[in-house]
Amino acid sequence: MSKLILHVGTHKTATTSIQNILALNRKMLAKHGFIFPKLGTESGQHGLVTDWITLPPQYQYEEGSVSAWKTLVRDYANTDKTVFVSSEEFSRGDPKQRINLADIRELCSEFDEFQVICCIRNQVSFLQSIYLQVAKSTVAVPWVRLYERALSHRMATGVLMDFNWLYGHLKRGFAPEEISFFVYDQAIRRPDGIIGEIMDLAGYGHLTSQLSALSAGDSNVSQDPLTAWASAQISIKQSSSRKLLNVTRSVLEQHFREGVKTTVYSEAEVARMISFFEPLNTAFEEDIHKTGHDLKITWPNKDPNLVHRNRVPPAFWIKLARRMYDENPKLH
């Protein structure tokens, strides 16, 4: 029987690493009936959504999304293969930039079985990771504005923060029993990591030990939070340069301690985020339990050594200004 699996993210849950690992092992997996199709130039199959969602040109397929879906159906729907496609854009929730999963279900109706795999992470870590991604790739959205919109809109840069809404989006195309959720914070503690969780859910866990690892380790790793935030306060019209980030991190370590762990949140913001999303998460967990699956979203442990944004004193900015002055001969 043929099976189509959609790995839908979410964003900032090691999706790039997963896609790169599967692409690296594409030939080996295909020998076992697990097809990770080569589409376009990217590891992930992001071009499968561009008829619905606007993405940069490098993600788009020349033939368009619908034609690419039809090709997958033609090649695999009447076989005994499992086709696994992966893009975090499947889970994007902005009503104006959202794929219609009912369309996908209809396009791929010739497949015998369907499964959706979705990884979620607690909203405190999730939002910070989204902020760091934006800060790395473009001009950073002001943190406070992003934070407030996450609470008022339950969404950040088009990414759903309310998992009840995410579940509703997925159920527009798939039945609850076809949707498998797992929690990022728990999966990363597995000896074989998130890729092990993915392979287990897909029914190919026996192949995990045969996967070749990425030579460069994890992909798309986030920056240090306060380093990114402090640098963004200086480089407000463009993404921060590597030199600025390095100088900022060095001054942070000089002011606090070497290897200091940081967060862009203030302590009050963390408490407010948990208070807001805790009941929403509980409702989501109870909904998942109705399908016979256990799911528990846990919040980050309190770390007395973690430096929050509100703990950065004026003395830090004075040290950073002096360091930048010393490193820029043009200012002398």
The coarse silhouette is globular
Describe the sheet with the most strands. 5 strands, parallel
Say how many strands there are. 7
> Roughly what percent helix?
40-55%
**N-to-C series of helices and strands:** EHHEHEHEHHEEHEHHHHHH
- The overall pLDDT average reads 94
Strand arrangement within the widest β-sheet reads 2-3-1-4-7
Strand composition percent? 5-15%
CATH structural class of the largest domain = Alpha Beta
Total tally of structural domains: 2
Number of helices: 13
> In oligomeric terms, what are we looking at?
single chain
CATH topology-level name of the largest domain? Rossmann fold
CATH architecture of the largest domain: 3-Layer(aba) Sandwich
Summarize the structure.
It contains 13 helices and 7 strands. The protein is an alpha/beta fold. Helix 11 (242-255) crosses helix 13.
Question: What does this protein look like?
Answer:
There is one protein chain. The protein is an alpha/beta fold and 332 residues long. 43% of the residues lie in helices and 9% in strands. The chain contains 13 helices and seven strands. It has helices at residues 15-24, 26-30, 65-76, 101-107, 123-137, 143-153, 163-171, 184-187, 193-202, 225-234, 242-255, 267-289, 314-327; strands at 3-7, 34-35, 82-86, 113-120, 155-156, 159-160, 179-183. The strands form two sheets. The chain has a five-stranded parallel beta sheet with strand order 2-3-1-4-7, with helices on both faces. It has a two-stranded antiparallel sheet with strand order 5-6. The longest helix is centred in the last third of the chain and has 23 residues, at 267-289. The protein is globular. The model has no long low-confidence stretch (mean pLDDT 94). It comes from Primorskyibacter flagellatus. This is Sulfotransferase domain-containing protein.
